[in-house]
Amino acid sequence: SFSAFAVFAFWSGALVAARVVSDPCVVLQNAAEKGMTMPAVGIGTGGYGAPAETWNDGVAMKAVSTWIKLGGRRIDTAWDYYDQTGIGKAVQAAISSGAVKREDLFIVSKTHMLPGYNDTLFQLEDSLKQLQVEYVDLFLIHLYVPLPNATDPNCRPGRSDLEPACVKSTWKAMKEIFMRGRKGGARSVGVSNFALSHLGYISDDEVQPSVNQVEYQPYWHEEDLVEFCRNRNITFNGYSPLGTPDFGPRARNWNCSLLELPLVKSIATAHNKSSAQVLLRWNWQQGIPVNPRSEQEEHMKENLAAILDETFHLTDSEMHALSNISPKPKCPKVCVFGPNCNPRDHHNYH
């Protein structure tokens, strides 16, 4: 275990000492500005099941406003979350009031699926308009499944090499977005929901992703994928760290909340913490940044405190027990690596 305020080196770069008013950060490498850092905890804003079932512009605007007020600085959204307009309003209100400067915030957006070259550029530019910002801090390819109506010939059905060709073409656009930087682009670029095989499609590219954002929690954790990312200086960012406690009607089979598990509750009681804080700490003690989703101010405070509290450490036995929960649930991961990650059923991925 380690102190959240210690300064030392680990796989994604040096852990950056944080002031009490903000959470610790990880240093991004590869396709990222030199010396760029990403806050360890962010607020997720994607709804499960279908557009706007659990999140929309109004919900997101209120949540992000509260998050910024509490000192949260990383905001995680996507072109297909249908809430970027609301987030943009919250961001601009915070900047206009003097509460923060643009450079204080770390805004993450993503493509819709795997769009191909032209659609990736369009989605980035459209996201900037919705968010009312000149750049995002991190832009991610959301998924390895090609967009059904993609304009890119490399992404159209019928190709025997459809997936690798579309990944490579989309990554070409991502590199251009990175080159634009703060002038209509992104300070860093990466991927999301990419398994080893998908990362392999661009493994020989001279520009590697800075981040791979994948579901990571005690039910589902792929150590081989984490290790691969570590070895290539790709920061592994976990989403759905609490499972999926707030799922929409189309995603009933995702009801995989870990919050009420007896093991999690007993560890929380032992530390005088909430179940959510235990799960977030389990991630962070592995050096994995998280972006839990919440609408409630008290929950946001808990999420920040789980990372900030330098006296809070899970024991080795607690870490081991959480990593080996049995039996596994019958419900699937949010995005299963392979054909089961069907965009018609899994509209929002985290």
Mean pLDDT: 86
**Total DSSP helices:** 10
**So what's the overall shape?**
globular
Order of strands, widest sheet: 5-6-7-8-9-10-11
SS strand fraction: 5-15%
Helical residue percent band? 25-40%
Low-confidence stretches: 1-21, 337-350
Q: Radius of gyration, rounded? A: 19 Å
Tell how many strands the DSSP assignment holds: 11
Order of helices and strands: EEEEEHEHEHEHEHEHEHHHH
Structural class: alpha/beta
Biggest beta sheet summary: 7 strands, parallel
Structure overview:
With 350 residues, this protein is of the alpha/beta class. The protein is 33% helix and 12% strand. The chain has ten helices and eleven strands. The longest helix is centred in the middle third of the chain and has 19 residues, at 162-180. It is globular, with a radius of gyration of 19 Å.
Question: Layout of helices and strands, plus pairs?
Answer:
Elements: E1 9-10, E2 13-16, E3 25-27, E4 37-39, E5 42-44, H1 57-69, E6 74-76, H2 84-96, E7 106-110, H3 117-131, E8 138-141, H4 162-180, E9 189-192, H5 196-200, E10 211-215, H6 223-231, E11 235-239, H7 262-271, H8 275-284, H9 297-308, H10 316-323
Parallel strand pairs: 5-6, 6-7, 7-8, 8-9, 9-10, 10-11
Antiparallel strand pairs: 1-2, 2-3, 3-4
Helix pairs in contact: 1-2, 2-3, 3-4, 7-8, 8-9
